[in-house]
């Protein structure tokens, strides 16, 4: 390059976007990659775009449902690129193979995997773009790139005074060779990672400008509601819409796959007219289960089938034969709803040869499959526009609400917004499965010598693979969808990942016991289920950590010291256990009428221990304080970690105190927050979170706060009353 710095600056100063328009550096590199002649913008990779007017756009491949990906993942890009995260504009990703979650093999947000799976690729993306920008500036100045510095969206000359903005460098940077192994910023030089900074979506959410699915508005939009059968598996026998069709604003009433759809010009007109519909249901194949029949089925299954051996160490039979005493207990947990604050909804627009969907979905690629199933469109003819999510908790991994909106829009040929009522959201949820746990331990002296855990209940993949398998093969013709789903089930562990939803948190039993056996008796009573915040860890932690407390009591040991002695070979478990005990004042005097309970659990690679302080006041359980310690590897934003652990505590306590879906002859009895309660603000305990400094690989925090708090509360109630509760929800 023959132009010196002074000549370059003259050219740049004399034109609009001078660098991009005035220089032709064909000798410096090959054809630009990702550079647009029309816009002057450089798309450095699937995540990052820089424009000549100095804007930076980041494409967020994981949805934002309150868990902090919008801020956390943007921080990773900003750190390596050298731009303050608040200067980066975030876009939600379209469906694309570049955005597949490598931990799940689908474009899906769940399993507390967002930071873990994005930590390396996003940092590499930012660092690569930074090195290419620095390389472009160094060529202009004819200096060593190693002597140039990046400072908040600009490359600074070695002299310390001259600088070029990223926008001035985008065309030249696009012609640089992509570095094979860009240098990542060392931990001791981080400016943004590990720092408590405000959430990037806070302003939009607090001013009402953040667009959730339920906020989407399109010109000429109509509204749809769906009347679904009261029992899962029932179908429409007949319906009478004559009265509804005569009501103001009603445009059409027709049958769809999941019930009867009613379309009106306004939402409340649709909802009012829905009450006038008369639908007869065919219940021949409908669910007839009750809570009692489900547990009876589980007990019978457990008696007849010891289940698949998921983990075995030592000789459990010998341990029980030689034990001085054997302790047994059974634990039962009910079905749980998700109760997201934003009910299910989606907006669909059919163009004749394509369909557009706007939806708060955790799995946009599965949304395409849901649309393809109810139309003649192929998945690549469906565009999914992801919005903010008003809570997910696993419910929005299943795309039934998108399929309904698409089926209605396909028929009415207008933009359609479908909204579920709170009652519909509760009664037509897919639930956290009810589970049964049979525990047995052998004791010699004051030592636990054997541990047996039989888990009884269904697997979630059985319900989920129907659409998940086709999403992995979007090119497949639709007549193969069900075959792919069946093949996925048959090939579990080979074609598809092993389904650990029933056993996770049990097979990773961390305590040092010589003889160990964990088994799963797979039985499914037919109640629709899906992922629920912390999934199998939520029910296994309750069984494991409550039974551990029972064993501590049986051997006359302090529950904290009992666990501590059995975790000497698990340093990360031990560290959070000891920190939570210290933070919670374990062993120190308490106010009269109060007691503490403790639990520790590892889920999704993150270690959490909690101490709950509780009492019973006026015949009700009151939780005063929860002390938490968490080890999730390097922390991107400490405030978000604390927020999410606290959120998990509130979510878990809600389930512990109120969570219970009641089935009677296949019908869900709960309907709204009056009978499926949430923890109210005045019931909220003080929650204190201590973060363990760690150099281990980063893990997630959206779910791990949930599992230990339920047994910790139960253990506190035992310490308070002397009565052990083995069935949820807990009572006073």
From TrEMBL:
Keyword annotations from UniProtKB, A to Z: Signal
Coiled-coil spans in chain: none
Segments passing through the bilayer: none
Region forming the signal peptide: 1-29
Pfam family, one: MoCoBD_2
The keyword Transmembrane helix is annotated on this UniProt entry: no
Matching InterPro entries: Ald_Oxase/Xan_DH_a/b, AldOxase/xan_DH_MoCoBD1, AldOxase/xan_DH_MoCoBD2, AldOxase/xan_DH_Mopterin-bd_sf, N-heterocyclic_Hydroxylase, OxRdtase_Mopterin-bd_su_IorB, TAT_signal
GO molecular function annotations of the record: oxidoreductase activity
Domain Aldehyde oxidase/xanthine dehydrogenase a/b hammerhead residues, every copy: 207-285
Name of the protein: Isoquinoline 1-oxidoreductase, beta subunit
């Amino acid at each position: 390059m023959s132009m010196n710095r002074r000549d370059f600056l003259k050219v740049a100063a004399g034109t609009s976007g001078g660098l991009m328009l005035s220089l032709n550096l064909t000798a410096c590199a090959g054809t630009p990659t990702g550079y647009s002649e029309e816009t002057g913008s450089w798309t450095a990779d699937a995540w990052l775009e820089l424009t000549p007017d100095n804007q930076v756009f980041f494409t967020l491949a994981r949805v934002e449902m309150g868990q902090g990906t919008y801020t956390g993942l943007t921080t990773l890009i900003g750190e390596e690129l050298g731009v303050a995260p608040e200067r980066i504009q975030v876009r939600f990703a379209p469906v694309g193979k570049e955005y597949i979650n490598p931990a799940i093999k689908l474009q899906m947000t769940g399993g507390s995997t967002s930071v873990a799976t994005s930590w390396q690729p996003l940092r590499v993306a930012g660092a690569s773009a930074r090195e290419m920008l620095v390389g472009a500036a160094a060529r202009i100045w004819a200096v060593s790139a190693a002597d140039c510095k990046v400072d908040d969206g600009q490359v600074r000359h070695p002299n310390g005074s001259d600088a070029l903005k990223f926008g001035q460098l985008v065309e030249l940077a696009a012609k640089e060779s992509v570095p094979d192994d860009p240098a990542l910023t060392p931990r001791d030089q981080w400016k943004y990672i590990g720092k408590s900074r405000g959430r990037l979506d806070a302003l939009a959410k607090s001013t009402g400008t953040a667009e959730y699915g339920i906020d989407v508005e399109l010109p000429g939009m109509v509204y749809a509601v769906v009347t679904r059968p009261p029992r899962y598996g029932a179908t429409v026998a007949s319906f009478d819409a004559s009265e509804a069709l005569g009501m103001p604003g009603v445009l059409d009433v027709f049958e769809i796959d999941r019930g009867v759809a009613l379309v009106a010009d306004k939402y409340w007109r649709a909802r009012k007219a829905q009450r006038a519909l008369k639908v007869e249901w065919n219940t021949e194949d409908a669910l007839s289960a009750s809570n009692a029949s489900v547990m009876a089925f589980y007990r019978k299954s457990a008696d007849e089938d010891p289940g698949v051996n998921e983990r075995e160490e030592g000789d459990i039979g010998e341990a029980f034969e030689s034990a001085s005493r054997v302790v047994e207990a059974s634990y039962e947990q009910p079905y749980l709803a998700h109760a997201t604050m934003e009910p299910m909804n989606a907006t669909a627009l059919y163009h004749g040869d394509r369909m557009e969907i706007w939806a708060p979905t955790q799995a946009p690629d599965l949304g395409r499959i849901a649309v393809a199933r109810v139309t003649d469109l192929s998945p690549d003819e469906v565009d999914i526009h992801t919005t903010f999510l008003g809570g997910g908790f696993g419910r929005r991994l299943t795309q039934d609400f998108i399929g309904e909106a698409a089926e209605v829009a396909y028929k009415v040929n207008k933009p359609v917004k479908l909204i579920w009522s709170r009652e519909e959201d509760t009664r037509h949820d897919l639930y956290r499965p009810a589970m049964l746990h049979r525990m047995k331990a052998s004791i010699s002296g004051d030592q636990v010598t054997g541990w047996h855990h039989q888990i009884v209940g269904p697997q979630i993949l059985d319900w989920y693979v129907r659409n998940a398998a086709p999403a992995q093969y979007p090119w497949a013709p639709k007549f193969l969808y069900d075959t792919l789903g069946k093949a996925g089930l048959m090939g579990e562990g080979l074609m598809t990942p092993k389904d650990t939803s029933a056993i996770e948190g049990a097979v990773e039993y961390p305590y040092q016991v010589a003889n160990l056996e964990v088994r799963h008796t797979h039985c499914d009573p037919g109640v629709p289920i899906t992922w629920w915040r912390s999934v199998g860890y939520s029910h296994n932690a309750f069984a494991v950590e409550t039974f551990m407390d029972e064993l501590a009591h049986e051997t006359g040991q302090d529950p904290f010291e009992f666990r501590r002695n059995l975790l000497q070979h698990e340093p990360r478990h031990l560290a959070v256990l000891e920190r939570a005990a210290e933070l919670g004042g374990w062993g120190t005097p308490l106010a009269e009428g109060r007691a503490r309970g403790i639990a520790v659990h590892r889920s999704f690679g993150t270690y959490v221990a909690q101490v709950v302080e509780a009492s019973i006041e006026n015949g009700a359980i009151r939780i005063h304080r929860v002390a938490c310690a968490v080890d999730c590897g390097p922390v991107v934003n400490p405030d978000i970690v604390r927020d999410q652990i606290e959120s998990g505590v509130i979510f878990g306590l809600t389930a512990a105190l109120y969570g219970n879906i009641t089935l009677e002859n296949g019908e869900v009895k709960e309907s709204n927050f009056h009978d499926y309660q949430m923890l109210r603000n005045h019931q909220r305990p003080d929650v204190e979170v201590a973060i363990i400094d760690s150099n281990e690989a980063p893990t997630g925090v959206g779910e791990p706060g949930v599992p230990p708090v339920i047994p910790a509360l139960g253990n506190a109630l035992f310490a308070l009353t002397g009565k052990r509760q083995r069935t949820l929800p807990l009572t006073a």
